[in-house]
Amino acid sequence: MTTRSELEQRIDSLLAGEVDRILTTVPYAGHLISEEQALDDEYYIRHRIETVKRIILTARIDALALARMIEEDYESSRLWGRYTADELNHDLLFRRDLHQHGCSNETIDGAPPLVATRNLIIYLSRRLEEIGSLTAVAYSLFVEWNSDRVSARVVNRAERHYSAKHVLGARSHVHFDKNANHYAMILDITDKLVGRLKDENALFDTLKELASLFCAYFQELHDVTIGQRAEASSSPQPAPSERDLHAVQS
């Protein structure tokens, strides 16, 4: 029987490797924390819009997981209920920062989720039916691990590039998660649910799949911002005579 400490070490090792793979292999993913490349405004703002999208879309998954968890482990559901109630308000923090960039709520809400985000929700919905509430807990484990290990570096980088007022919401989010000890709370729930399932592979398979989905997300984020601009700038321009002919025909 794996102890909680052993489980935590395995999770930490897996996530450290997966996140490092994303940061080092996906174009520009690492520039959110590294000074080697200038922070791309379009990329960063779209990333924050998508953060809001994920918070809202995964709220439904969290609620469905709560209903399942009440039947699976009632004591854990008390913790999960408090955690998910907190998470429901976190989109407001990132909206505050986006407002500093000139993005209205209408702009944020009107932006369709990226394909990778829609695929994430589809996966979570399907996996919830397969293994129960551990699905949503695994997702929270993934994002809380990142909040604990990586998010502060992203916030510091953005503050240096923009200003302190541009990251008030994101910094509040990091502090809130740390002060509420969210990662430890999710680990406690994970330990109980894995023990109930008696199947650690269900957890680790889900975490690996989530890492792949986030890898796809960062690739798409690059493609629709930096990649799209690069493609447009490298497209051959028509010769002057061709432009003149087009103008006459139109």
UniProtKB/TrEMBL annotation:
SUPFAM superfamilies: Heme oxygenase-like (SSF48613). Residues 241-250 have a biased composition (Basic and acidic residues). Pfam families: Haem_oxygenas_2. InterPro entries: Haem_Oase-like_multi-hlx. Residues 229-250 are annotated as: Disordered. Gene3D superfamilies: Heme oxygenase-like. This is Iron-containing redox enzyme family protein.
